[in-house]
Amino acid sequence: MDQRAQVKFGVDVLWRRRLWILVLATVGLAGSILVANWLPNVYRASTTILVLRQSILDDVVRKSVTTRVEERISSLRVQVKSRRYLERVVKELSLVPANASVAQIEAACARLDSKVELDWDKVGLSWFKITADDGDAKRAADIVNRLAELFIEQSSALREAQAKGTVDTVEGWLEKTEK
């Protein structure tokens, strides 16, 4: 059979089976519409945090600064998805009743942990993103915003302690030099 004959044969087969094709397409479309209406809405919220490297020379802060950006990013998953953070978010956003048992809090933390995803710049280590999926758009946004706030608060406290250590080191050098 040459190519024209094959094409004609294929068209003839499709024409004879047109009713089956139409029925299957209609059933598939109707099924897709039913499934789309049946599935619950899921909203996704995310926030991106920029991670800046220190602006003081390494030589000045070598003795006082012990964590680098690489170390902070690598501990990010453990920190943001820690029980401490998740439990604070669960309680603050009323994801459990005020008088919840330890088991209820643990279950709520596990649910929240499964809703939260983390991503980061694997090349430049200059940002990371916290994403949460939830059936309520406002709650999804509240979750990621609170987790980001907790991370920033702790990171700021750490940086403040490191800066104080750096100032103490420089003041020690100054005092030593003056003597």
Overview of the molecule:
The chain has eight helices and three strands, in the order ααβαααααββα. The protein has 179 residues and is mostly helical. Strands 1-3-2 form a three-stranded antiparallel beta sheet. α6 packs across α7. The longest helix is centred in the C-terminal third of the chain and has 42 residues. The radius of gyration is 29 Å and the shape is elongated. It starts with a helix and ends with a helix.
In short:
The chain has 179 residues and is mainly α. The protein contains 8 helices and 3 strands, in the order H-H-E-H-H-H-H-H-E-E-H.
What brief labels describe this structure?
179 residues, mainly alpha, three-stranded antiparallel sheet, 3 strands, elongated
Write the layout of secondary structure elements.
Blueprint (H helix, E strand, L loop, with lengths): L2 H14 L1 H21 L4 E8 L7 H4 L7 H6 L1 H5 L2 H10 L9 H14 E5 L6 E8 L2 H42 L1
Antiparallel strand pairs: 1-3, 2-3
Helix pairs in contact: 6-7
User: In angstroms, what separates the terminal alpha carbons?
Assistant: 102 Å
Oligomer: single chain
Find the count of extended strands (DSSP E, 2+ residues).
3
The dominant shape is elongated
Mean pLDDT level: 83
User: Over the alpha carbons, how many angstroms does the gyration radius reach?
Assistant: 29 Å
